[in-house]
């Protein structure tokens, strides 16, 4: 197991993640196993767990979904099986049968889809396939939880005799009921059931008149329940048979228990397999909820987290329907340590916790919410110093605790260690604490450890610039609005925006100015320069984004124009081919028309046939012999061209119709002049001009010279007024 202190896991809130995973388990054993998860340092241990979870995750979003793995735990039954001369109860056998059936279903499914789920198949294939257990249980116990009649010959005979005796009891009781029915001895209800036996409901005053065994009385004492004498001997016989049945059932269950006893270890393995499947399923469900996946695992000490989310923050914001900002960070041999600076509430601590929690999750076999192109490695040790650790019980101040922690870091840090320190160096005098923190950082650097720290100290920012394999980073802060953008930027230190934030929160400017004079001028200028550079970077990022958007739009427009140009070129080629074909047909038609005209005059058939043959041979000589496939392709192409032309013509016609309709509507919207006799007019959709001879209501007779027509006034437009 990887060397991770319990306090580190608590600082990173790993137990909370385990509780959320546990809540997604369906069995009690699965829930317990989820809470017991611990990180591992070797790829041999963690890789199978990660890949199994990834396989299960793929099944959740595919049609070949892994079957249900639910089961009732059989720990009590397994303990009994390991003790001689013990007998399981029917409920225990049913749980064992269900468990074996579920395992068999999984083995069959995973064998069928082993190409999709190779590691889960390999896990199931390690279990011995056993059908004896299920068969033995089903032969004895039915689906209602009762021992079958045919579980043994003796039981079959006993139950057969019991049914016969029950029949005799029924007959004898009916006979007794008939005997006393005519008398006034029985109450109105006549009969009842006491202790699962049919009894006569006899009036209390006549109880001595009815022979039999008194089984009880009513609450008021007015009725006495008597089992008739005729049924008593059969009841005793039934009681004896029931005792025999109980003994035989116990013997059968004892025999079945002894049959299953050799399989106790196998049943334990079955239960472990299903509880492991339950835990794997819970991890996969958690991955779905947090948008997690399995990134590339590398062995060259490179930690590249792209678009990484803190899972707890992501789920919390998801529930509140708020946005969660992802972070991208990279550590590798040439850039082992990152120093993050910037204002408070800018996201430094959450970035630190995200890195640590995702690393712990990954080394515990959990998928992590990052981009699919992320690449991660495994660390032997993970050390953290996050949050306030003041301890009243141990009489330790925050700084004392931190010094003890740093001492532990110095003992354990090596090239396979990841350390995460929040607010590095704080808790003491700024200058002295900063100097000590600088010394610690140099030791971590010399030991080639990997780490991320957050700080406000200028000397640590300067040291990060000086050391070759250490990088400054900052959480972007909008200098205009003084609001955090929650974006991590590598390569430059960040300003704390101390005075700017103070001014925004209403601190008087005179007081801020006074504070500026109390510190070294060089430090103010240094912080101001960083703040200015950060503002300039924000502007450059915005400008770059805008230019990138414009470039993308320009590329899209160029692609669109190129496609349009190709389409137009193709159409022109098609039209040219169609035009050439039509011209050839016209020329050929002219020749045939000429021959036909000559035949019309001289009626010489031989000359006609000879001329037609000559024309056909001339045309055929121009043709190239083509295969049926080529001819079909040409016909298809011509049909497509013709269809394209028809579409174009149809489009033009429709366009003209729309334009005409718009013109008519426009004409309608213009107030029409009042027409008079003698005015020269024409129809809205016509060209001929006539004069109005007469008007009557909405009708007009229009004279076109050679004829007249009767039309509606609405269909006419004025061309010229009468002179």
Describe this structure in words.
- The strands form five sheets. Strands 10-11-12-8-13-14 form a six-stranded mixed β-sheet, with helices on both faces. A five-stranded antiparallel β-sheet has the order 18-17-16-15-19, with no helix packed on it. A four-stranded antiparallel β-sheet has the order 1-2-4-3.
- It has four domains: 169 residues, MutS, DNA mismatch repair protein, Chain A, domain 3 (Orthogonal Bundle); 102 residues, Orthogonal Bundle (MutS, DNA mismatch repair protein, Chain A, domain 3), CATH 1.10.1420; 216 residues, Rossmann fold (3-Layer(aba) Sandwich); 41 residues.
- It has 21 helices and 19 strands.
- The radius of gyration is 48 Å and the shape is extended.
- About 1% of the residues have low confidence.
- With 723 residues, it is of the alpha/beta class.
- A hairpin with a 6-residue loop joins β15 and β16.
- The longest helix is centred in the last third of the chain and has 82 residues.
- The N and C termini lie far apart (112 Å).
């Amino acid at each position: 197991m990887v060397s991770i202190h319990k306090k580190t896991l608590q600082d990173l809130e790993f137990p909370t993640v385990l509780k959320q995973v546990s809540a997604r388990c369906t069995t009690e054993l699965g829930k317990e196993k989820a809470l017991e998860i611990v990180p591992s340092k070797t790829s041999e241990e963690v890789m199978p767990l990660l890949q199994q979870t990834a396989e299960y995750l793929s099944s959740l979003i595919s049609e070949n979904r892994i079957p249900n793995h639910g089961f009732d735990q059989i720990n009590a039954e397994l303990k009994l099986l390991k003790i001689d001369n013990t007998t399981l109860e029917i409920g225990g056998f049913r749980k064992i049968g269900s468990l074996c059936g579920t395992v068999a279903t999984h083995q069959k499914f995973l064998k069928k889809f082993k190409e999709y789920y190779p590691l889960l198949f390999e896990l199931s294939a390690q279990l011995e396939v056993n059908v004896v257990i299920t068969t033995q249980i089903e032969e004895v116990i039915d689906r209602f939880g009762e021992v079958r009649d045919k579980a043994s010959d003796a039981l079959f005979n006993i139950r057969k005799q019991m049914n016969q005796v029950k029949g005799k009891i029924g007959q004898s009781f009916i006979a007794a009921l008939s005997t006393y029915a005519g008398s006034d001895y029985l109450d109105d209800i006549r009969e009842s059931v006491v202790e699962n036996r049919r009894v006569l409901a006899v009036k209390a005053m006549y109880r001595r008149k009815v022979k039999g065994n008194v089984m009880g009385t009513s609450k008021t004492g007015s009725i006495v329940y008597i089992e008739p004498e005729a049924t008593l001997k059969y009841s005793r016989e039934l009681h004896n048979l029931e005792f025999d049945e109980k003994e035989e059932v116990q013997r059968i269950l004892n025999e079945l228990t002894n049959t299953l006893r050799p399989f106790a270890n196998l049943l334990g393995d079955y239960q472990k397999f299903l509880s492991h499947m339950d835990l794997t399923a819970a991890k996969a469900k958690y991955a779905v909820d947090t948008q997690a996946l399995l990134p590339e695992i590398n062995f060259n000490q490179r930690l590249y987290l792209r678009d990484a989310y803190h899972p707890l923050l992501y789920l919390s914001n998801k529930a509140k329907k708020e946005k969660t900002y992802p972070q991208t960070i990279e550590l590798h041999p040439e850039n082992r340590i990152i120093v993050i600076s910037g204002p408070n509430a800018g996201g430094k601590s959450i970035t630190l916790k995200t890195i640590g929690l995702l690393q712990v999750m990954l080394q515990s076999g959990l998928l992590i919410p990052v981009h699919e192109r992320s690449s991660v490695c495994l660390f032997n040790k993970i050390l953290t110093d996050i949050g306030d650790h003041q301890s009243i019980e141990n009489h330790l101040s925050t700084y004392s605790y931190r010094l003890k922690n740093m001492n532990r870091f110095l003992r354990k840090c090596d090239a396979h260690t990841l350390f995460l320190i929040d607010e590095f160096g704080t808790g003491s005098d700024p200058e002295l604490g900063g100097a000590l923190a600088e010394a610690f950082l140099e030791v971590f650097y010399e030991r080639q450890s990997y780490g991320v720290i957050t700080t406000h100290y200028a000397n640590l920012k300067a040291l990060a610039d000086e050391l070759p394999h250490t990088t400054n980073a900052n959480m972007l802060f909008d200098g205009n609005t003084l609001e955090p953008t929650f974006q991590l930027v590598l390569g430059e230190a960040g300003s704390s925006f101390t005075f700017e934030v103070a001014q925004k929160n209403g601190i008087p400017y005179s007081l801020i100015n006074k504070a500026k004079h109390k510190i070294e001028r060089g430090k103010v200028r240094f912080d101001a320069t960083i703040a200015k550079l950060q503002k300039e970077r924000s502007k450059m990022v915005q400008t770059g984004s805008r230019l990138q958007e414009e470039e993308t739009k320009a590329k899209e427009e160029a692609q669109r124009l190129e496609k349009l140009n190709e389409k137009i070129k193709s159409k022109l080629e098609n039209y040219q081919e169609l035009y050439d074909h039509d011209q050839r047909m016209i020329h050929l038609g002219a020749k045939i028309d000429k021959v036909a005209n000559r035949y019309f005059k001289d009626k010489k058939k031989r000359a006609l046939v000879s001329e037609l043959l000559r024309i056909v041979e001339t045309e055929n000589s121009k043709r190239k012999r083509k295969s049926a496939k080529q001819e079909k392709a040409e016909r298809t192409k011509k049909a497509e061209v013709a269809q394209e032309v028809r579409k174009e013509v149809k489009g033009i016609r429709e366009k003209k119709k729309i334009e005409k309709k718009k013109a008519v509507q426009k004409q309608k919207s213009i107030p029409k002049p009042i027409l008079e006799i003698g005015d020269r007019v024409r129809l809205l959709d016509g060209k001929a001009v006539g004069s109005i001879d007469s008007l009557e209501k909405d009708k007009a007779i229009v004279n076109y010279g050679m004829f007249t027509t009767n039309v509606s006034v609405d269909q006419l437009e004025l061309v010229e007024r009468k002179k």
